[in-house]
Each structure stands twice: as C-alpha cells, then as structure tokens.
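New to this. Explain the following:
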Amino acid sequence: MKHKFVLAGLALAVATGGPAGSALAGGSDIVGGVIGGIIGGAIVNEANRQPRTVTKRTYYKKPTMSSAQREANREVQVSLNHFGWNVGTPDGVLGRNSRAGISQYQAFMDFPITGKLTDLERTILTTSYQKASLGGAAVTQTISTHPQGMRGLLLQTREQMLGTGKSTYAGNSIGGLPPQISEAVFEIARSSNVEPQQLMARSGFVQLADLNNDGRTDYLLDTSVLGPGFWCNDKSCAVRVFASTPSGFSRNDFQAYNATPAMFTCQAGTCQKTGASAQSNAPVTAAAPAPAPAPAAPSFATQMASQPAPAMPSFVAPAPVTEPVPVSLASFCAKTSLVTSSNGGFATEASLTDPGQALGEQFCLARGYALDEGAELEANIGGFTPEQIAAQCRDFGALLSEQVAAVGTTPREATLAKVKSFIDGSGMSPAQLSGTAKVCLSVGYRTDDMDVALGSALVLGGLGEGAYDELVGHHLMQGIGTAERADLAMGWYENALSAQPVFAPAQPERSGLIRKAALMMNGRADAATAPKPAMALPSFAAKAAELVETAAPQ
C-alpha cells in the first residue's frame, strides 16, 4: 500500500526530533509524511496546549439580523482586515470597530466619511478582496508595483468600476460590473426576453480574467449557457470578450460553445480565439493574395508512391472528442457574489426562487469558513513556508485521486468505503489526519485545486466529521471538481444537515434553505414542505464533563 508508506514516512522523524527540513528538501517521495507528521503533529500539539474551544458554539444568542445580512457584514469585515483596517474577528456585526474601519477605508478612497457603506463602496471593497483571493500574475504585479501595495487593488477596482473618472458612473451597473459590460448584459436580456438577473445567475455567463496581462479585469459573456431558447444556436453561440484598454473596454465577438477564458488571447484590446486566425466574427475584407507559381508536375513514380493505401469506406462521422473544462471555484464565487450584490443580499428560505444561486451562495460561504479555519491551523505550523505546505497538499490530493474520481459516479456510502480504506492504511492517527485534511482543504480552495480540496473534504467525512459532507454536496450540485450530479448530492447534504454545524454555526436557518434548494434542484414537488430537523434539548452536563476531561493534566 503505497500511501501507507508515504504518509507514515515523516511521522517518525517528527516523533524522534529528526531533521524535518532535510526530509522536505529531498523531494516529494515522502511528502505525505511531511503532511502527516509535521502538519498533523503541529495541530495536535496546538490542540493539547489550547483545550478551550467548544463552549463558544454551545452558547450563542439568537441572531437579531438575517443570515444574509450577517454574512454580507462578515464579508465586509474580512475585506477590511485584509487591506489593513483591523476591525477584529469577523462576526457579522458592524459595531464601533467596524464603523471606524469603514471610515478609514472611505477616507483612503476619497469617499464621504460616514462610517456606513453605500452599495458602490461595498462592491468595490468586496470585489477587491475577491481579486486578491483569486491571485494570479496580474494581481501580484499590481501589489508589487503600486505605490499603495495591497491597497492598490482598491484604487484599481474603483477606476475600473467608475470608468476613466468618477463622473462617468451613471448608476446603470448590474452586479458591480462596469457600465459598458452591464449594458451588454441588458442588451442580451432584452433580445432574449428575460430579466438581467436571470442571465447573471447562470453559471458561466459572466467570467472574469486578465486576458491581456495588463493588470485589469477583462470580461467574457457566453450565451451558450442560456440554451437554444435565447441567443444560442448550439455550436453558433455568441460570445463577447471585453478586453481592457486605457480608455475603457474593447469588445470582441466570437462564435463559441461553453467558452472559457483559456480559449482566447488578447493583445491590448484585440482578442482572438486560441489557434484561430480570425480575430472576431465580424466580416473582414482583405486583399486577395498573389497566386503562387504552379509547381512542376511530379513524375509517375512519385505519384504512385504518394498514393494512400486503399481502405474500406466509412460513411459514419467519428464522434467528436471533447475534454471537460475545469471550472474555477474562485471565479464561480466571484460571479456568485456579483449576483448576490445585484439581488440585494443572500437568498433565504422564505425568498427562495433560484435554488442554484442560493446553493452557490452557501457553497461560497462554507468555502470562506474552510479557508479561515485552515489558515488558523496553518499559522501554528513552524518551519515551513506556505508554498512548501501547498506543495505537500498537492501530493496529498494526488494520493486521494481514486476517492475523488468515485464521487461523481457512486453514492455516498460507496465513496466513503473507499475513503475509509485510505484512512485505515494511512498510518496516521485520526487527529493528525483531521488536522492535515483541514489545512489542505484550505490550501485547495486558496489555490483553486479542486482535487486537493475535494479529497480533503472526503477524508474529513470519512473520519466522522459529517458537517464537511456539505462541501461534497455542493461540488456535485455545481459540477465543480467532479461531475454535476444533483441526485448524488442529496445523500451528502442530508448527512451534513444532521451533523454538528461547522460552517456559520450561528445561522441554524441555513439547514432549511439548503434542504429546500437541493430538493428544488432535483425537481421534488415537496420542496416547499420539506420537514425541518427536530430541535434537540441542549446537554450542558456532557459539555461540562468534556471540558473537565480536556482541562485535566496529561
């Protein structure tokens, strides 16, 4: 069993005080050991030093605001912290510290200092944070070259959203998109006889990228996701690529199906499809090339030698071979956030009309919690850079490729049987493996590596931490990192909703929303009357006993 040797390799080095650094320098042959021994061991040691935990989740007040508003506030607090205006732990309540941070942000951005965000100010702040989370060469270049460093992203985003100057903003934007891109959305909506919000809610309709490497966001609008009832006619779907220029955006039209940014390259404002000679679908008139000189007639022997061998006739066209295009979860969450902003906040069980968007919002919310949880654990691991830990997690994900491949084809129970076989053969304690998986879950989402993220979530579910099954359900529902299987997602959702909550534990109403939206996605007529989980009486005695046991000297 290869993974048993790999994962156990460096656990011995950590236990005996061996040279962890030299083991890492030796390459990836024992990278699983680095993960199991160093990451897992550091987390277990940290947990032993800090036995506090559980009671905070046991005692909480009933929220006085909606879950959507609380999460929107939390996103603001996370964004402010990221750009250096420290407002404390993001709790979704915009108190004195948060208002002070907002005022400092407004002063920096030359907005009116009120301590309260307008929709535009909020969109610029959170969009800039999303860009920072996505990373990439353009973001790195902006941060490294802009006089304001990381905060340069804020100024850049403001310029993009307001055009060349503040006075050009006419308030005709949808979802925080620049006016020119928004107008294209409105035009497509009018021609398609649908609402603009319906277009924005379609996964893949709006995609963000830096296609010309100028440090600005470019936009791709793909009508192939709308279906034949709109503009798309199968393989002749209209795609608009808006490439940034110093004066705004340059529009490029193409015909493509299931378009992705990887299909296009841009130089300044001019784009072309990868491997295609035409830059757009607009008719191009060009001078006819001069005729080439006629070649000399080949000899009879040469003609005979060049004739292909006779073959049986075949009148059946070969089926086209298409490779699935990986979907970026970071891009998906950025677009989901735009739609959420356009809709005025998160969907609730009472307001639910678009189950796909609602589940997308909850997916990205859970992703945010997983990112934060893993980052806190990673901070306790000494002696390794984030890049080194990320390299180890990539190999951890590779060891779980068989289990990840099973997610999109087999029910939950069959998939977990494979996962538990991996766990049994890993040679690691449950605590080590749990800590490893939580760190790598965060790394997978941070680096947009779905094999690492999904594999880590599976390990946590296999260890009995059922709340993480929610992530597997989301991956299946959205078709990110695995096949799109709404039917298989239900088993993962149901188990997660009956487990102790990990993501947004102070928002118990999430369970009803996720269950109802998942049923709607599966065409269940009983979605509106889905039973709510029974409320259990709290057991303080059990928690007290747990705290006493944890606090006892080892």
The longest strand covers residues 238-245. The CA atoms of residues 135 and 466 lie 31 Å apart. The beta strands are 206-209, 218-222, 238-245, 248-255, 264-267, 270-273. DSSP finds 24 helices and six strands in the chain.
